[in-house]
Amino acid sequence: MTKTSWSRSSKLALALVVLLSAFVAPTGAVSVASEDVPSEAQVDSKVTASATLDELYKNPQLETWTLAGNTDLEDVTWTVTYYDQTGAKVDQQSFDGQNFSGAQVVADDGTSEVEVKVTGTVPTVTEYSYDPAQSFTVISLNQTREGGSSNHIQSWDATHYTDESAAARAKLDSAQATIASVSGANTKEAQQSFNNAVDAYNSGNFDLATTLAEEAETRANKAKQSSQTTQLLIYAVGGLVVVALLAGGFFYWKSQQQTYDKLG
Fold it and tell me: How many Å apart are CA 128 and CA 95, to the nearest integer?
């Protein structure tokens, strides 16, 4: 290979590496050591969620950065607590509102872990959904750097509900399980009632959703009983056929014996 061709190949390889690097997501500098976040919560109830971050300075260039967060909770209070390597509290800050920023994480302060705690009221459901269940963001954290760039650390969501929506969902779950348990039966009508129940749930009409879910379960059970009855009838008819064949065979054998005796 000539010097010219080698130079061109090297430049091409370098350009390829640069191009591929542009599409590789940067490695996050922060990890989640522990979390305590509810998976579901009732509308208008008060909840608290927390997450503890460690490996704060994985990237040497990020020995100083800012923590930011947001939530869909309402009437929110954030508490950010800083700990050193011994577990002793170094500092603590409080913020109000659904969004906060300005929590400085600085290696020179001796900070080794940061606990973020959010307390607020579970928001009203704006749009119901049976599958997947309606949800809201409990806590979402980001690492921001000087210059405006940021890395998403992690988000935690939870489903939210009212007494009425929870009761309707329970009926839907029961109906769905009953339909799924019915094998070899015609569950078309039951499935249609269930689909209508889901539509009612998604529109927020929980009374109708409950009624249709109960109807779906009743139809599924009737289909199951009908299938079992049909199966029993098939077994019974099959048994009668066997008995008839055996009886016919016996009488034929008996007649043959009688004919043999007469000939003797």
Answer: 31
